[in-house]
Amino acid sequence: MKLIFCVDKKNGIMFFGKRQSQDSVLRKWIIAHTADSKLWMSNYSAEQFSDLSGYIADDDYNAKAGKDDYCFVENNNYNLENVNEIIICRWKRQYPADLFFNIDLKANGFRNVRSEDIVGSSHDKITIEIYKRG
């Protein structure tokens, strides 16, 4: 399974149960990047993707996603047991946060295999980091 997270400069994800930020160019990148696989997300996350297609909205995606499927994670729990890849989409800003990305990538056997910067619609720089286990 492959997990996708959006985080700010301090690894913040959400604040008071709401996403910190969103970006339409990044959403299109995620859909294009996962086009040959299934992309799962919660019903909450699907609200921001409603103008796009190519994803499955299901609050139980963590249990239903297959080995090669992607899961866009915002407000749901996840289990690292079957995860072989993590994609971090990093905003170059800091927002208020009370939910953070707190996976110790190195301790869990992940290594950075690629990074790229894209120009978003609301963020002038979004860094996409891809980590693989093993």
Provide mean pLDDT, rounded: 95
Oligomer kind = single chain
How is the biggest beta sheet arranged?
A: 7 strands, mixed
Class per helix and strand makeup: mainly beta
Distance between the termini: 14 Å
The low-confidence runs, each spanning 5 or more residues with pLDDT under 50, are: none
Number of helices: 3
Gyration radius over CA: 14 Å
CATH architectural arrangement: 3-Layer(aba) Sandwich
Number of domains: 1
Overall outline: globular
CATH class: Alpha Beta
**For the largest beta sheet, what order do the strands appear in spatially?**
5-4-6-1-7-10-9
Strand content: 25-35%
Fourth CATH level, the homologous superfamily: Dihydrofolate Reductase, subunit A
In N-to-C order, the SSE pattern is EEEHEHEHEEEEE
The CATH topology label is Dihydrofolate Reductase, subunit A
Describe this structure in words.
The strands form two sheets. Strands 5-4-6-1-7-10-9 form a seven-stranded mixed sheet. Strands 3-2-8 form a three-stranded antiparallel sheet, with no helix packed on it. With 134 residues, it is mainly beta. The model has no long low-confidence stretch (mean pLDDT 95). Strand 4, helix 2 and strand 5 form a beta-alpha-beta unit. It has one domain (2-133): 3-Layer(aba) Sandwich (Dihydrofolate Reductase, subunit A), CATH 3.40.430. The chain has three helices and ten strands; from the N terminus they run E-E-E-H-E-H-E-H-E-E-E-E-E. The protein has helices at 24-33, 43-46, 61-64; strands at residues 2-7, 12-15, 18-19, 39-41, 56-57, 70-72, 85-91, 99-100, 110-118, 126-133.
